[in-house]
Amino acid sequence: MSVRTSIRSMAVHTTALRSATLCATRAYTCTYTRPTVIPPIAHSRLVQVRAKTTSPNGPNKWAKNPVINYDELKPITEQPNDDILLIDVREPDEVALGSIPSAVNLPLSVLKESLSEQYSTGDFQRKFAFPKPAYNQNIIFFCRSGKRSATAAEQAAERGYPNIRNYTGSWLDWQKKEQARDGGDD
């Protein structure tokens, strides 16, 4: 195999990967085309490439700023919408003590498995009582202090979710700011 043939083959691989596009979106389900698998070139290194998703209007601003603070989060909780999913990654016994309004619970202990492609949307809905997040959905993770939510954000990114943010102050910051706000109104 000549160098020129090898370069052409690599170009075919690259073109196939770039052609992975979003085909259909419905509610919380996304279907992606998969590029045809082409046998590796002899004597070449195996390179793992992940196709990146972008919105039709360019990169999502969520991907540009991975951290969110109380002042940005507060209005989101006051007017929740389907475009933003607020996920509490604490265990259910911790959530029972209080949570941020409009949040859903998906414990970190099961997050990685639950967001995998092998976990069906039906099973996810039955287990967690909310739809499995779409790959292009804006997601905010929080926990008690921000450490587990940072791990959750990393795990979600590894699973192909590009539009994620971490509320680094998490529940402790939320509680403190809400108490100060309520105390100031008296």
UniProtKB/TrEMBL annotation:
GO MF, one example: thiosulfate-cyanide sulfurtransferase activity
Record CDD domains: RHOD_HSP67B2
Origin: domain of life: Eukaryota
Cellular component terms (Gene Ontology): mitochondrion
Rhodanese domain ranges (all copies): 80-183
Protein name per UniProt: Rhodanese-like domain-containing protein
Natural source organism: Naematelia encephala
